[in-house]
Design the sequence.
């Protein structure tokens, strides 16, 4: 219990208001955003690797003879992604701006390659992957990062030139560029990624201060586009009708949703225990990817599910805090776009699992299996860490903190620079 000064020679215990004020004061420290992003990312990564092993062990034992197949692959992707995250956290802002156009161009080329017969691979009604023999790449995932960087750089340049007061300079070439990405993803029948790309586009317009009429009009156009995508594709229409009638089609379009709800319901308050869930025994399809949150709810219960939601909430708070506190327009826009991407993707995934949203096939960031989604996400989080160091007072706080663990370890080996 915190003690506060009272009369001379005596102390009294802090009251509830003082304790709340002290806790809130922790959020005002310069490095709060940095440690929130880092801590939430590491905890979600650790949970994700554990749950990938638990959710995939049964099916992988049946298919490959080893329960650790997907776990080992995910560990390899993490071993690749974490150094990239660390590298991104140490890059200057100008490097992210320099990468914006090349990454967008590479994303467009890769998305076009997905549509080439013999290169693209389909699954679940969507053509999302480029088949490169032993590995498959999903180019729509780095395309999210490409749109964040390119859109932020473009709008920051226009803001510096004072070109954001009229709708035409505001939307050109942002709207055609985002539209091209969305079109290529739509041609691959990937509605979930289309929603995320549109969310990034709208978040950039919101942050840059697009006029209300323009924003509402674009949002209405997006809703119309999504409605058309649902109507023209039979399996999407089945998912929508299944969502509207959850008690019907229990063995067809609603099977995955119902099994996910059974898994969460059987978890109770504290779950069945790690590895003790039954949904992964060929009851719940895609347990290690789209529906891994159901396995979390089954094996860790309501408490575990709330921890996951809490970690994503803190991550979103940290990202928005960075966007609010930094001064540079590009940094503000990129931080907001990346935060919107991760937050909306988590909301759509969790919402589909608990049947408050239709199933779209979007993975849960940092938790679901898949290297194509994990590595761009880790790079985006590294970027947020780099931006957090540019908050007011952050550099001074980092300098006062002294050398980090890597530098200290190198100094012990006599390898640190003097």
Sequence:
């Amino acid at each position: 219990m915190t003690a506060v000064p009272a009369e001379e020679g005596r102390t009294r215990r802090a009251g509830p208001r003082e304790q709340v004020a002290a806790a809130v004061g922790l959020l005002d420290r310069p490095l709060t955003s940095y440690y929130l992003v880092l801590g939430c990312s590491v905890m979600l990564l650790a949970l994700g690797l554990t749950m990938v092993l638990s959710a995939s062990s049964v099916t992988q034992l049946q298919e490959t003879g080893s329960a650790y197949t997907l776990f080992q692959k995910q560990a390899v992707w993490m071993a690749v992604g974490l150094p990239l995250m660390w590298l991104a956290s140490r890059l200057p802002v100008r490097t992210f701006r320099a990468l914006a156009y090349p990454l967008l161009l590479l994303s467009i080329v890769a998305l076009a390659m997905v549509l080439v017969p013999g290169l693209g691979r389909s699954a679940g009604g969507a053509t999302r992957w480029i088949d490169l023999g032993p590995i498959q790449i999903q180019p729509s995932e780095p395309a999210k990062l490409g749109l964040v960087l390119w859109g932020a750089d473009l709008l920051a340049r226009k803001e510096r030139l004072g070109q954001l007061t009229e709708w035409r300079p505001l939307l050109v070439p942002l709207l055609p560029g985002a539209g091209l990405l969305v079109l290529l993803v739509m041609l691959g029948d990937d509605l979930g990624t289309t929603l995320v790309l549109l969310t990034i586009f709208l978040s950039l317009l919101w942050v840059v201060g697009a006029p209300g009429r323009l924003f509402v009009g674009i949002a209405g156009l997006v809703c119309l586009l999504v409605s058309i995508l649902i109507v023209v594709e039979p399996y999407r229409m089945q998912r929508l009708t299944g969502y509207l009638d959850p008690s019907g089609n229990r063995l067809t379009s609603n099977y995955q949703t119902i099994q996910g709800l059974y898994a969460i319901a059987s978890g109770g308050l504290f779950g069945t225990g790690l590895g003790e869930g039954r949904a992964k025994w060929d009851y719940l399809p895609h347990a290690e990817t789209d529906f891994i949150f159901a396995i979390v709810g089954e094996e860790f219960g309501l408490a575990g599910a709330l921890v996951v939601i809490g970690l994503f909430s803190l991550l979103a708070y940290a990202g928005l805090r960075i966007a609010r506190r930094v001064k540079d327009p590009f940094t503000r826009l990129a931080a907001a776009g990346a935060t919107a991407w991760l937050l909306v993707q988590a909301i759509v995934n969790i919402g589909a699992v608990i049947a408050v949203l239709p199933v779209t096939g979007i993975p849960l960031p940092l938790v679901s299996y898949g290297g194509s989604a994990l590595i761009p996400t880790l790079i985006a989080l590294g970027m947020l860490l780099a931006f957090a160091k540019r908050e007011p007072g952050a550099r001074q706080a980092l300098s006062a903190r002294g050398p980090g663990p890597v530098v200290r370890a190198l100094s012990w080996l006599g390898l640190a620079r003097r």
Notes: The mean pLDDT is 86.
